[in-house]
Amino acid sequence: MNVLFNLPSRENALFRDEIDKTIKDVLDSGYYLLGAHVKAFEQEFADYCSVQHCVSVGNGTDALEIALRALGVRRGDEVITVANAGCYATTACNLIGAVPVYVDVSESDLLLDINKVNAAASPITRCVVATHLYGQAVDVPALRDALDQAGHSDVTILEDCAQAHGAMMHGRMVGGLGDVATFSFYPTKNLGALGDGGAIVSNNEQTAQTCMQLRQYGWQGKYESTLPLGRNSRLDELQAAILRVKLKALPTLNARRQQAAAYLQQHCHGIVEVVTHASPAYVGHLFVVRHPQRQLIRDELAYHGIATDIHYPVLDTDQPAMQMQPFRSMGLDRSIAATAEIFSLPCYAGITDDELEHIGKVFDLYIAKMV
User: Dihedral through CA 318, CA 282, CA 261, CA 192, nearest 10?
Assistant: First the structure.
């Protein structure tokens, strides 16, 4: 049996008739940008996240850049973040000219170590990007308290929710925990479009208004640009219509991811170290494990037809492009150690019970005897 890493086409097949119908409706409408479906999706997604405002954009990276600009981050300002999350927040900082400041992660979940943040803050720190990595949730309220107690109440918090649609922390949905939050709707995300897409959510009306202007040339009104550094980053009507269809099913899709992750955890526990543990704060975007003999295990899994991947194989600080960019690093021992050991197993809404059982049997019969 071959178990591929992620097949969003299986998930989309569940909604094929409804997606076909909504695509036809958009085509027949003749309105393809910033129309009724975009407005409806923005309201529905804001309601889902329990926030007041949602501004849709072209992709998740644009969402990060625009949100940082809306928070007042400018060239030369510092943004605290992690180095193990795929370089997305770093890319947004580079586009603005901000300086990323990297802090280490927690040993258990590889999320931002809140206890490291205050030591990294400086007089020019403007924002902390809290990345909800792998479908897990950073404790943003605790981060806010830590910053405030250290006298950094002026430092804003941006939640990067690109891998955590629907994750909960203290009974609250991610996206409404910080000052602003960003999402990606890349096809493999928990809420995925049939192409690129992104969104920015916030409870702050001025932040949302600034984001709305920045996504379209800085326009206050049509052809009237009043805000500098605007761009063209719009979610199209087709993607918005498709996301509306799938948003209704997101709790069910997340539940399936969590079920798959719980099964994998049961069969991997004690053989490899599981990073992503089942909890309301984890929505199964990725199922991540680690082991010093990573390549040996991946090769054995591949022999049995099971695809794996590494999220992520290179820290931001080690990317060749970053050698030409300014940054600060506060000591990343845990991040470095994890990068040499982590790998991800197939875990997505469309994975079948037979495929999960195959992974479990391979771990029980082969991997357990190797390590």
Answer: -80
